[in-house]
Amino acid sequence: MENWLTKRAALSPNKVALIYQYTDFTFAELNDTVQLYASKLFNDDIKAGDRVAIFTGNSFNGYIATLAVQQIGAEIVFLNTRLSEDELSFQITDSGAKLVLIDDNLDSSQLKNIDVAKTRMSELLSMDRSDSYQPVAEFDNDAVTTIMYTSGTSGRPKGVLQTFGNHFYSAFGMSLNLRINDEDSWVMTVPMYHISGFSIMMRSLLYGIPVYLIDKFDVDYINKILINERASIISLVPTMLKRCLNDLKPGQNFNSNFRCVFLGGGPIDNWTLLRCQMLEIPVIQSYGMTETCSNVVALNFEDAQRKVGSSGQALFPVQLRIAESDADGIGDIEIKAPNVAKGYLNQPELFAAKMTSDGFYKTGDLGHLDEENFLYINGRKDDMIISGGENIYPEEVENVYAKIDGLESIALVGVPNDDWGQVPVAYITVDSDAFLNGPDLIEYGRNRLAHYKVPREFRLIEAMPLTASGKILRRKLDEVEFEVM
Amino acid sequence: MENWLTKRAALSPNKVALIYQYTDFTFAELNDTVQLYASKLFNDDIKAGDRVAIFTGNSFNGYIATLAVQQIGAEIVFLNTRLSEDELSFQITDSGAKLVLIDDNLDSSQLKNIDVAKTRMSELLSMDRSDSYQPVAEFDNDAVTTIMYTSGTSGRPKGVLQTFGNHFYSAFGMSLNLRINDEDSWVMTVPMYHISGFSIMMRSLLYGIPVYLIDKFDVDYINKILINERASIISLVPTMLKRCLNDLKPGQNFNSNFRCVFLGGGPIDNWTLLRCQMLEIPVIQSYGMTETCSNVVALNFEDAQRKVGSSGQALFPVQLRIAESDADGIGDIEIKAPNVAKGYLNQPELFAAKMTSDGFYKTGDLGHLDEENFLYINGRKDDMIISGGENIYPEEVENVYAKIDGLESIALVGVPNDDWGQVPVAYITVDSDAFLNGPDLIEYGRNRLAHYKVPREFRLIEAMPLTASGKILRRKLDEVEFEVM
């Protein structure tokens, strides 16, 4: 297919592409700005096939820089801005990024000591443009365009290789599901470095609809946009939705063009859903992950009321099945779809291990289907915790703490939390002669891990509950007596 | 991707899929009926990879039978029901069809003497179903699903190999252009055996919208549907549109859900467009061909008034360029798109000859782009005539007549016609001692060619106008004195 940005600018030059801080940019203006930026990047020796890491919030510069890297034909490595120096260092090295582009308005102290070329996004603007630069003519469905890192139960984080085809089929499936029309626009407050955010940018190019880009989660500002502007769709995780609802004054509601909250990032409580129903705010629940390049399952409007609690049906391009189900029909969710990623960078064997012999991707999630093939999520096969839309793998956090002298054993679990869905809490046992305390342990974690991964609380216990074979029985931990450290 | 029919039936079982003679069929009912039919075909020894020729009008049985062949994984060979015995015989032999499925309500005398297995569509219904039949699990983008024959300047007709991917990207491009929504439905009166008709069937599965299937062009019946039902889109060729307009009574207009006439099959006159404007009937002009698996260029709603006379912009997945343009910017229209067909059956070299070294398909049409990249068609490089939406290649007709004793030379040209756009007329020179007359020559043609290809009139001239190198100068023929035979 032709380059989506140049094609969209040719098809609808005067339509609004981006709304940032109440300023509109048309697709022609967006394209011109991105190409200028790309030309300067090209002059700075970034070429097709290179990898460029992006360290940005949802800023205008970040939006432009990201699309510019794509226009050159270089691969975008998205960095989660909340990660620690160690975590970022690994991802930058693993990806072989030639350059890190850093958003000016962001604290980037975690990057200071990492040995890689770095450029502030604004610095690039004062550079020369290249005369020989040309945007790529085509977006090849099989070519990788974005790399996003995910953690997991096993060791190192994995760079998920997402192709243009992945993004295309994801956007296609969603357009059928949401019946995108000319009046639609999408509010992007979920981060660009997550697939939930970046996928909005790609949909905008494919559908030709505007993005309201929101640089930080300021609930007052967001509600102003939802109430006073013509915004029609917003992607939210449950934590954000609750804050928006809490901030609504009596009698206030979203604008008349508003169509739905598109909800991802874990389960939502029934009370919040009920509040949305009373306000007549449709909530489209969905299910997806970085490896499936955004959603593979979503509710539709007709069934949103009838199927409360379900994530919906597998989208048009998606095959979904439940493998090894138990007596209640609960089993492993497996996915086959053209939006399943190409693999893990440098660790193809780990991706291969998640594929069945007939080409289905084993999500690691548990779920069941009702008689009409609507999916209900029943948790994780592993012990992943979802906190405010971010995934936390206990093993990764436990490994960081395991190095501490005197800490005998540690087990991380998620405990329910009204604001975040879950928060991580650590149960530990210590040597009798160890001098450890909670605040120090938290400080230790904050120096080495993204803050959302750090246990909120350390709970000292006598002994871990174990299986017959000596493994920790995580689900028994909430029955064990503990003392907060 | 998953099998589109079974997927659609799973996603929206209770939505209307097909409306035939005022009777509704849901996607669940359509799927059940198609699978039953496919099971019987399978029992009749039709397997994946076989080719099955379909000889049908726009009947219910034809609709079901066509989808059933696709469900088995066999390739559909569409036969134009207006072709002569010679023409059909060639296509059936060339395609190696294992079976011809014949619509019961159709005169099929042209097939009588052709040596191939034939089954009436209704006969199959009394056969046994197979217990081992399973529909194909997936529609592979690279797999051929339909074969449609086109004539051309050179010798034999060519079977165009159309893949699932071709149909998919065509439907995707159209959905963005027309902003398909839940309330849409598509009236299918153009024949199923043309890409303009079959593409509606594939869009219905992908978008989940109903098709109004119309079995013959009865203008009274069609207008009833456009006026009294909720039909929103109709594909028409100019001839048909004019008839519908002529049949409207003063004060009558199409229903309030009607969105547009989707117009293909050659140019339309300004008077007809003006009438549509006065009636506030949006006309979306478009451009496409069998080899590009339906439209590659179409107008959109915003520009329909502003760009009257243009076929529109290249659809999202389509790259279009004008090669070797003259001083007025008029040149060869070339297309690169994932909906360009895979090739010609048994004649790959002919398709290869139409491809440029950088992967563009040379359409053989002439056109130019305005400053906003809207396409205007300026005719054909060759001398193809379009009559009522059917393509006629003069060389094919001339070759049939060239065998007649005493007929010295013949040249076919299209002359303007209010009803059909163009009709074919033959200029001939004869030996001085030949006894030929118009009615006999017409009769001769009707026995050997589809009737729409037969010259309406034979015009006797003294001598052909020739180029310096001795080739017939077709465009000078309208200046030559003639006598109607």
From TrEMBL, chains A, B:
Pathway(s) where this gene product acts: Quinol/quinone metabolism; 1,4-dihydroxy-2-naphthoate biosynthesis; 1,4-dihydroxy-2-naphthoate from chorismate: step 5/7; Quinol/quinone metabolism; menaquinone biosynthesis
Q: Which SUPFAM superfamilies match?
A: Acetyl-CoA synthetase-like
Q: Which UniProt keywords apply?
A: ATP-binding, Ligase, Menaquinone biosynthesis, Nucleotide-binding
Q: Which organism is it from?
A: Companilactobacillus ginsenosidimutans
Reaction(s) catalysed (UniProt annotation): 2-succinylbenzoate + ATP + CoA = 2-succinylbenzoyl-CoA + AMP + diphosphate
Tell me where in this chain the AMP-binding enzyme C-terminal domain is found: 396-471
Protein name, per record:
2-succinylbenzoate--CoA ligase
Q: Which GO terms describe its biological process?
A: fatty acid metabolic process; menaquinone biosynthetic process
Its signal peptide is: none
Family under the similarity heading: Belongs to the ATP-dependent AMP-binding enzyme family. MenE subfamily.
Chain's role: Converts 2-succinylbenzoate (OSB) to 2-succinylbenzoyl-CoA (OSB-CoA).
Q: Where does the AMP-dependent synthetase/ligase domain start and stop, copy by copy?
A: 6-345
Q: Which Gene3D superfamilies match?
A: 3.30.300.30, N-terminal domain of ligase-like (3.40.50.12780)
Q: Name one GO molecular function term.
A: o-succinylbenzoate-CoA ligase activity
What would be the name of the gene that encodes this protein? menE
